[in-house]
């Protein structure tokens, strides 16, 4: 009987704990700078409260977007300007980004645009 009671308590505790979602702290995104690798180049990414700018080839080219925050860890980027040659997206395109994890200075994310989804990471500068 003790075994059944212990098993029952364990299962109750397991289901109670698994129903809680651990909320990520994504406040580091706002008003900060990050880098990510594109090929062998590093891209600088600057987040302001409602603006996002990427600097490619040491600032020679840029991509500027407005940020529409959905939650602390999820947002849309609406592309306003792109000087990067052969940039594949049109101005006004809406990129959905969701932060999937954070480990040390690394931020992991999943992006979706036009039916294409990819994962990436950026590092706090």
Explain the overall architecture.
- Helix content is 14%, strand content 54%.
- It is built from one helix and eight strands.
- The chain has one helix at residues 2-18, and strands at 32-38, 41-47, 51-56, 61-71, 74-82, 94-103, 106-113, 116-124.
- The chain has an eight-stranded antiparallel β-barrel.
- β1 and β2 (41-47) form a beta hairpin.
- The longest helix is centred in the N-terminal third of the chain and has 17 residues, at 2-18.
- Mean pLDDT is 85; it is low at 2-22.
Principal-axes geometry comes out as globular
Count of DSSP H/I helices: 1
Count of spatially separate domains:
1
Strand fraction band?
over 45%
State the strand order across the main sheet: 1-2-3-4-5-6-7-8
Low-confidence stretches: 2-22
Summarize the structure.
The protein has 125 residues and is mostly beta strands.
